[in-house]
Every structure is written in structure tokens, then in C-alpha cells.
Design a protein that fits this description.
mainly beta, six-stranded antiparallel beta sheet, Jelly Rolls, Tachylectin-2, Chain A, binds beta-D-fructofuranose, 35 strands
């Protein structure tokens, strides 16, 4: 029976796969003179943001202005290791395709431009805008070995050129570690708020300002949640809880430890214009992303509508400078939309990649109701390969009434990507512990750092045995979302470039693959696609 299903599916996939080949268009025939090696290097993600060359870390200055989403980022214009920190720059009109722009803020006179944010100064509160409609202001940490303080720069030409404010710094507390200002407009009190990290003290400080130039301290939050290592890159924003409509505030904080590397936590609570209050106990740690490669995530300012959009750096300070890519190092995650939902354990963030990504979906296959039985089961998708895929799979496993039954079942099931004889990356669900996991121990090159290999895990309880896995696979990236974004898990991998196999598997338990959709995703960097878009838009 198993073979019958496997066979049926394989043929069905093959037929669908071939039928969905896009027709050759006149436009495609026109564009033949493009550089076919552009963004094709080993491990180069095809639809995640990477700089053309050199080192990148945190996303910075996320702001929407005049039809463009700006993405600035920590950048070393001179090398593939961390150093000479400046703000690189890209813009997008759709959160999917990015256009590279020249470096926006360059380090000078020994002062590095560390992480920060950007705002639209709509009412020219700073007096730095040429037009009464406002201008862009970036707020960043000016870093020297002895001192970190907060400085600003402004742009009156839609972010194309920047001037550092001559009265810098705008906030100096004479501290060595005091960084990553996130500034936003607080409508209720008509004022600017800044959240900024005291890394060693595991605290976030809140300041207020009328003009972005003078700042008053209001309060501190911490040390709560995860309090080892250092705290960096705070962000504070409000969201409505989907089920109740109640407005709550979310404070997100990145933390970095020598032993376990980089990760992110968040707090849910209230903010009254001066003080953030955590609604949970001090020691509760809420993890934002359960993989090893999601850090320094922050959200966009001034996004139209109610959307709260997050992007994070897909790397880890523990091994980040060793990852085997050249001539660039590091990638940003997909843009994710955040929501708050009620769960039995409390109010929690959910994350989902933005719907705009659907526009790069290409060849598609769908299947449903495939039974994977208890013994050594796998569904080999021989005619579906890919290194740039989106996969949505919904599984249903035998209903489990008690923990004892769950432990007995001890089954696991899921998806293997970059599958070969010697290598695989496994994204699965462990029924006994009710956890979503990702295993990169056999994923390919793991030896460049002794802490890289491993397995990441997140509790994902289900009432009815339904497990939904939404995966984005992109050459050296796996971003996984479990049960509609209840769990996010992001990991980098460096597989043998010859491998592109995909397999659905189950061991030790019977499971039904209720439905599965796989899309091949188009490159956002492909110069052919870029030209086709241009022609189509005319
Ligand atoms: C976080 C971080 C920030 C700092 C920046 C320097 O990854 O350490 O705290 O501003 O990177 O590049």
C-alpha cells in the first residue's frame, strides 16, 4: 500500500511539475545579454537579502517613507569580517525585491556607526527638514572603544544622501556600553520615545523627546527574562491581541552569550508612555525564534496600515565570521508580519512571512491524504528537487490522549531537504515531546566551527494531532514556521551543492500527510527577472 501511494504521488508530482512550466514569453526572448552568474555563488541565497560583497550584521534604520521600505544594515565596506561599521542601504517597494544603494552612513575619525533606527520627522520637530512634509532622521550609536553615545543624521532626499548632525551626540551618558537606539513616535503624548540597551546590566532604558535632539530619561526595564550574557537591539511596539482586540505592548531584546551564542527574547505587557510593565513573571523567557540564526531583529517604523513587520540577521556571533561564504557574509531573514494571539499559556507573538512573497512562487505541486505507515516510511519526491522552495505541509498523527501514550508512540515525521546519501537537513515533529525540531548535524559543511552542528527544538503542543510546517528553503537558509507561526525556527546550512532532494518521512508512528504544497521560488536577484518586471511594469 505504501509503495502504491508513493508511486502514485511521484507520478502525479511529475505530471503537475511539467504542466506548470511557465510559457516562454516574448519578453523572455528579448533579454539575452544578462550576466548569468549574478548572485549565483556557492551558498548564495536567491530570495533573501544579502549584500553583493563584504560583511553585514544587524538590520538598521527600518523605515517606510514615500512608497519605499528602507533597509539599512551594519556593514563593513572594506572586508568580509566585522569592522569599520557603517550603514549599508537598500530599498524595496514590495518587501521582496531589494535595490542596492550606496553606503548611507560611513564611519569616520575612528567613530563607528553602530545599530539604530530611523523615523520620518513628519512635522519637522527637529528643524532639520527642508520641507514642511518632513524628512528622514537616523538615530544611531556612535561607537569608540571607550564610549558609546547616541547621534543622529538626516536626509532630505528620500534617504539617498545623509548629513551627520553637527550637534552630535544628542544623548551622552558617558557610558562604554549604551547602544542600539530604537526611536518611534508615541501618538498619545505627541512625543518621540527611544528604547536603548544597557547591555551589561540587562536593562532597557526609555527616553522621551519633543525634537529628537534633546532627550530625558523616563524609566528602565530589566533585568528580567533571560539575563546572562549581554542585551542588545531593543524594540518596543503595540499590537492588538487577535482574539480580544485588547492592545498590548511587546518589548523585544536580543541577547548574546559566550557559551550559547545569539538569540532573541520578548516580553508582553503594557507601556504607559514612560514605563514598560511585564505582564508575566520575571523569570519567564519567551523565545522569539528557536533556531540558532536569528538575531538583532527589529521592526519597521511608519508602515501603512496596522502591520508590524520584523526582519532579523540570520547569523550568530558565536560562529558568524567563520561561515563558509564569499565574497559576502551573512543574510537577512524574510520580512515577517507579527501578531499577538491568546494561547492556553498566555498571550504570545506569532510570525508569518509577508504575503507579498507569494509573487515569487513559480512551479507548484499539490497533494493530499497520503498515508505514511509505521515502519520505515518515506515519500521520495523524486521529481521535485530544489534549493529555493516554499513548502507547506499539514500532518495528522494518531490522536494521543495521554502523555504515556505519547511517549509510547515516540514517532517522528517531517521533511528532509538537501537530501543525499550522506547528507540531509531534517525539519520534523517529535510526537513524544510534542516538539518541532530542525537537525543540521548531517547538513553538509558543519566543521568550520565546533558549535555549529546540532539540533534546535521548540515545544509545539497540539490538541488534535495536527501539525503544520511552513518552510522556506533557500540554498543555505531554512526558515521554518510551525502551526501558523506559533513557532519560528531559523537555521543556516551549507550543504553539498550537488544536492537538492526533498523527502517526506515518518518513523515509529502512522501519520497522514493531509495536504502538501510545494512551490519553486524565483530568485529576487535574477537580472532576467528584474528586466522582465521592468518591461511588464511599463
Ligand atoms: C548586535 C550588535 C549591536 C551593535 C552592532 C555592532 O549584533 O552588537 O549591539 O550596535 O552589533 O555592529
Amino acid at each position: 500500500m505504501k509503495n502504491f501511494y508513493a508511486c502514485l504521488c511521484t507520478s502525479l508530482f511529475f505530471i503537475l511539475w511539467s504542466c506548470t512550466q511557465p510559457p516562454e514569453t516574448a519578453v523572455e526572448q528579448e533579454v539575452t545579454t544578462v550576466d548569468s552568474t549574478y548572485y549565483q555563488e556557492l551558498y548564495r541565497p536567491a530570495y533573501h537579502f544579502t549584500p553583493q560583497e563584504n560583511w553585514m550584521n544587524d538590520p538598521n534604520g527600518l523605515v517606510y517613507f514615500d512608497g519605499e521600505y528602507h533597509l539599512f544594515y551594519q556593514y563593513n565596506p572594506q572586508g568580509i569580517q566585522w569592522g569599520n561599521m557603517s550603514w549599508g542601504h537598500a530599498v524595496s517597494t514590495d518587501l521582496v525585491h531589494w535595490e542596492h544603494l550606496p553606503v548611507a552612513l560611513e564611519m569616520e575619525e575612528g567613530i563607528m556607526i553602530f545599530s539604530g533606527s530611523a523615523v520620518v520627522d513628519q512635522n519637522n520637530t527637529s528643524g532639520l527638514c527642508d520641507s514642511p512634509e518632513g524628512c528622514l532622521i537616523a538615530i544611531y550609536t556612535a561607537h569608540t572603544d571607550a564610549l558609546q553615545n547616541q547621534a543622529i543624521a538626516y536626509s532630505n532626499d528620500r534617504g539617498r544622501t545623509w548629513t551627520k548632525y553637527e550637534g552630535n551626540p544628542v544623548l551622552d551618558e558617558n557610558m562604554k556600553d549604551f547602544r542600539d537606539p530604537k526611536v518611534f513616535w508615541y501618538e498619545e503624548d505627541q512625543k518621540w520615545i527611544m528604547a536603548v540597551a544597557l547591555p551589561q546590566e540587562h536593562k532597557i532604558r526609555f527616553y522621551e523627546s519633543q525634537n529628537l535632539l534633546e532627550w530625558n530619561m523616563m524609566s528602565e526595564f530589566g533585568a528580567q527574562g533571560f539575563v546572562d550574557g549581554i542585551w542588545e537591539c531593543p524594540d518596543l511596539f503595540a499590537l492588538e491581541v487577535a482574539e480580544t482586540g485588547e492592545k498590548k505592548w511587546v518589548l523585544i531584546v536580543s541577547y548574546n552569550t559566550d557559551d550559547n551564542g545569539s538569540s532573541m527574547q520578548y516580553f508582553v505587557g503594557d507601556f504607559d508612555g514612560s514605563t514598560f510593565t511585564n505582564e508575566n513573571t520575571d523569570d519567564l523567557v519567551l523565545t522569539l525564534d528557536h533556531g540558532r540564526d536569528f538575531y538583532a531583529g527589529v521592526t519597521w517604523n511608519h508602515v501603512p496600515g496596522e502591520r508590524r513587520l520584523l526582519i532579523g540577521w540570520m547569523n550568530n556571533w558565536q560562529y558568524g565570521e567563520k561561515i563558509p561564504t564569499t565574497p559576502w557574509r551573512s543574510a537577512q531573514s524574510l520580512v515577517r508580519e507579527l501578531d499577538l494571539h491568546e494561547f492556553p499559556e498566555g498571550t504570545r507573538l506569532t510570525q508569518k512571512p509577508v504575503d507579498e512573497l507569494q509573487k515569487i512562487r513559480g512551479k507548484h505541486v499539490h497533494d493530499e491524504n497520503v498515508l505514511l505507515q509505521e515502519d520505515d516510511n518515506y515519500l521520495s519526491l523524486e521529481n521535485i528537487q530544489g534549493k529555493q522552495l516554499e513548502i507547506i505541509a499539514e500532518f495528522a498523527y494518531e490522536a494521543i490522549d495521554t502523555q504515556a501514550e505519547a511517549e509510547q508512540l515516540a514517532g517522528e515525521f517531517g521533511i528532509k531537504v538537501f537530501k543525499g546519501d550522506q547528507q540531509e537537513t531534517v525539519i520534523g515533529y517529535d510526537a513524544a515531546t510534542q516538539s518541532l525540531f530542525m537537525d543540521r548535524t548531517q547538513s553538509g559543511d558543519t566543521i568550520f566551527h565546533d558549535t555549529f552542528s546540532g539540533r534546535t527544538l521548540a515545544l509545539m503542543p497540539t490538541d488534535d494531532g495536527t501539525v503544520k510546517i511552513h518552510l522556506f528553503v533557500d540554498h543555505s537558509v531554512v526558515e521554518a514556521f510551525g502551526n501558523d507561526g506559533y513557532v519560528a525556527m531559523t537555521n543556516r546550512i551549507f550543504p553539498d551543492p550537488a544536492l537538492d532532494g526533498v523527502e517526506i518521512y515518518s518513523v515509529g508512528g502512522t501519520v497522514v500527510l493531509k495536504s502538501m504544497d510545494i512551490w519553486e521560488l524565483q530568485s529576487i536577484w535574477n537580472p532576467v527577472a528584474a528586466e522582465i518586471r521592468e518591461v511588464e511594469e511599463q
